[in-house]
Amino acid sequence: MPNRKIILSGMRPTGKLHLGHWTGALENWVALQNDGGYSNYHLIADYHALTTNLDTSHVYEYSIDMLLDWLSAGIDPEHSPVFRQSQIKEHTELHLIFSMLITKSRLERNPVLKEQVRDLDLGPTSYGHLGYPVLQAADILLYKGEVVPVGEDQMPHIEITREIARDFNRQYGNVFPEPEGKLTKFSRLPGLDGKRMSKSLGNTILLSDAADEVKKKMKKAVTDPKKIRKGDPGRPDICLVFTYHQKFNASEEDQIRRGCESGELGCVDCKMRVAERINTFLDPFRERRKSYENDPARLEKILEAGEEKARSVARRTMDDVHKAMKMG
Ligand code: TRP
Predict the structure, then answer these.
(1) pLDDT of 137-173, one tens digit each?
(2) pTM of the entire structure?
(3) For residue 99, what is the domain's CATH number?
């Protein structure tokens, strides 16, 4: 579509998505898609999954789980092609070209890499893992992405993408835009233990959780340790449950704050109220999910159609690249 800004974003297929994925990025994908002024492309970064885990036996299953979550959240595949990185060969080709435009030391300074090396027990860093942001730059620039809605942890990769776009354009002529990252207003939702919400920490609420599961999980959420029983005054600003109220129950935020601070509102009631709001929020997800789940053939078709669209854009960009490089 001419004159529409291009949105490109993706996620690694690591299994079912949780509320942190929604508040961190997915919410923006859906909002921008529905805005009408953008063309969205969303990729399943299945090659990126290999940077931290060479075992590919679950990659397809996780990709489908994630696709189902995207569709449940309101991604409309007719308007927003969804596709697997591994099925569009041009990603690897552009990655190779870009890999010549960035130094090893620049990549070694990437804070995301440093954090993963520290937190995951990975052994020596592979060449591919070091090049993670180079592949991400190829993901974005292959579609000439201009706006990249991601979580704040991804901003260093967007910065590297901008540098690569600039360096390519300077060297070979103007082919690529300089994409901008776009954060959600509420980019960090804590997990039920107060730490970052993450599958590996077991502190998530999944987009696919049933209503009673949400309640059960919320019951176990950590609250202000000084508020032991109803009547005790609580401190909403240090309570993760209050953060959930701010996000999913904004209209009652003040009332909840007063109830907590005065002690009138007990933690159990407070949790059940927010669990209900979260369930109201997730109900349309559940409704949409029904129409897709148990229909693997439909999901396959959605991917196939998305991959065909993505491939044709990717080929056009690579023609531009080859022409600019006089290698056409
Ligand atoms: N690195 C991103 C993440 O871990 C996933 C990703 C891969 C991505 N390619 C992308 C995000 C391109 C935005 C644009 O979440």
Answers:
(1) 999 999 999 999 999 999 999 999 999 999 999 999 9
(2) 0.96
(3) 3.40.50.620
Mutate to test the pocket of ligand 1, among 6, 8, 11, 86 (most ligand atoms within 8 A of CB): 11
My answer on whether 236 and 183 are in the same domain is no
Structure tokens at 145: 């992405």
CA dihedral 18, 19, 22, 23 (to 10 degrees): -140
Both 276 and 306 in one domain: the answer is no
For residue 129, is it within any domain? yes
Atom of ligand 1 nearest to the CA of 8: 14
Q: Contact at 8 Å (CB) between 208 and 69?
A: yes
Exposure string of 15-25, with b = 16+ CB inside 10 Å and e = fewer, is ebbbbbbbbbb
> Ligand 1 centre from 45 Cα, in Å?
7
Query: 232: which residues sit within 8 A by CB, 6+ positions away?
Result: 226, 263
Number of domains the chain is built from: 2
Asked, for residue 315, whether it belongs to a domain, the answer is: yes
